[in-house]
Structure formats: structure tokens, C-alpha cells
Amino acid sequence: MSDSVALFDDVSFDREVSAHSGPVLVDFWAPWCGPCKQLAPVLEEMAVHYDGRVRIGKVDVDQHPELAARFGVRGIPTLILFVDGNVEATRVGALPRDQIVAFVEEELK
């Protein structure tokens, strides 16, 4: 994983997402999840594309189940877009890049 995509834990999540001013796309995933692995390079590419406009990060639901529970994550991968610390939109599943970009762009309008 590159430096473009942040790895959030219980402490950094509140600092980097909940208290962040601006949009943050968070991928709730697990290392054993095949669709999550398919999504990883797409998120890496998007992190570079949106550099400075949208922060992109990941939460390993196996290591941080309380964060997954806090946001009602029941299936993975789950993408949640936060804006100014608030949940704006959620998508579940390994979506194609164009659908993820459209999801983010719609919420940034």
C-alpha cells in the first residue's frame, strides 16, 4: 500500500476523519476479502487523482471491529464518504472505478 491511502485505527480515525474538514472516503475492508483486494488498486489510483481534494483511507474491520460497528458496516468492502466528519453516503461492494468516481463526484457537488 502506498502513502497515498491512509490506514486508520481507532485513534487516527477520529483525528483524521471525524474531525477532518473536507471529504474523506473510507474503505472498510479485510485482508482475506477478495473483492476488497480488487478494490485496492482503484483506491490507490483515486488517492493520487484526488490528492488534496479528497482524503482516502482504509479501516481493517478485523483489527477494528468497533469502527465497523459504529458505522453499521455489515458487508465488505463498504465505502463511506465523510464530509466534515459526517457520513454523506455509503456504497457496498467492489464497484468499478467509474462508479466509485461518480459516487464521489456526486457528493462533492
UniProtKB/TrEMBL annotation:
Site annotation Contributes to redox potential value: residues: G34, P35
BP terms from Gene Ontology: cell redox homeostasis
Domain of life of the source: Bacteria
Native organism: Larsenimonas rhizosphaerae
GO molecular function, one term: protein-disulfide reductase activity
Keyword Lipoprotein: no
Cysteine disulfide links: C33-C36
Cellular component per GO, a single term: cytosol
InterPro entries: Thioredoxin, Thioredoxin-like_sf, Thioredoxin_CS, Thioredoxin_domain
Key words of the record: Disulfide bond, Electron transport, Redox-active center, Transport
Gene that specifies this protein: trxA
Record's keyword annotation contains Transport: yes
Site entry: Deprotonates C-terminal active site Cys: D27
Family under the similarity heading: Belongs to the thioredoxin family.
Active site: residue positions: C33, C36
Domain Thioredoxin: 1-109
Name the UniProt record assigns to this protein: Thioredoxin
